[in-house]
Write a structure and sequence with these properties.
With 240 residues, this protein is mainly beta. 12% of the residues lie in helices and 39% in strands. The chain is globular.
């Protein structure tokens, strides 16, 4: 973890300084600093290359949340162990969807990845295309108690020139991946609620409209569902 000094500064002699107040609100709590937060390290992960140089880092804004190694590797483009996936084929593309982790617990930060491979001469729309009236491809997961969904991460798109309408539109024509990051709340209420469950189910749809160089097809909505195991926190002290 990394030591967050904002709480100590907020309780110190300069606690009323506007800059300190702003730092406390941003890095500690909107409700102000407390003795409980002084000296609390915030979890983070550094990725290093073969020469020991830091190539990327991931830090949490809340000390009860934890990025998994599998999630970090997935965000960097490399999966770890094989995970059961949902595979599908439509008239316009094929896809493979899977979670970064097969099990989660209180405070886990994980992702759902959807790898999409459009058929030849087929494209789907990327963010920005909605400004021209096109339907952007989307992964829409249903709300789940105690789960926070972050905005979907889209890869870089390419510009497609549609000559009949003289339009330039952002699209995906080659294989690409959507990443939906999710966080299990790190609260006692969440721990109590998850203790009553055997597994956690996430469901939703992959929504898109595909087009070729002549026409656009009817929008498609493909149902998806994932079941994750739950790992309860071990509160038992180790006898020494």
């Amino acid at each position: 973890g990394i030591l967050n000094t904002g709480a100590a500064e907020g309780l110190g002699p300069n606690g009323d300084d506007p800059e300190v107040v702003a730092d406390v609100a941003k890095y500690v709590s909107v409700f102000g600093a407390s003795e409980m937060t002084v000296g609390t390290p915030y979890p983070g992960t550094f990725m290093v290359d073969s020469r020991g140089r830091v190539t990327s880092r991931f830090f949490e804004e809340f000390y009860r949340e934890r990025n998994t190694t599998a999630n970090v590797m997935l965000k960097l483009g490399t999966g770890l162990s094989p995970i059961a996936a949902v595979e599908g084929v439509t008239e316009h593309l094929k896809f493979t969807a899977y979670p970064s982790n097969s099990s989660v617990t209180v405070g886990t930060r994980f992702s759902i990845a959807v790898q999409i491979d459009p058929n030849p001469k087929i494209h789907v729309y990327a963010p920005g295309a909605e400004e021209l009236g096109y339907k952007v491809i989307a992964l829409n997961l249903n709300p789940v108690p105690h789960i926070r969904f972050e905005p979907v991460e889209f890869p870089e798109s390419e510009i497609y020139y549609f000559e009949p309408l003289d339009e330039r539109v952002p699209v995906y024509q080659r294989p690409f991946t959507l990443l939906q990051e999710a966080v299990v709340a790190g609260t006692p209420e969440t721990e109590e609620a998850l203790a009553q469950l055997d597994a956690l189910t996430l469901s939703g749809t992959l929504d898109y409209q595909a087009c070729d160089d002549r026409l656009c097809f009817t929008p498609v909505s493909v149902p998806l569902s994932f079941t994750l195991d739950l790992d309860l926190l071990d509160r038992q002290r180790v006898n020494r």
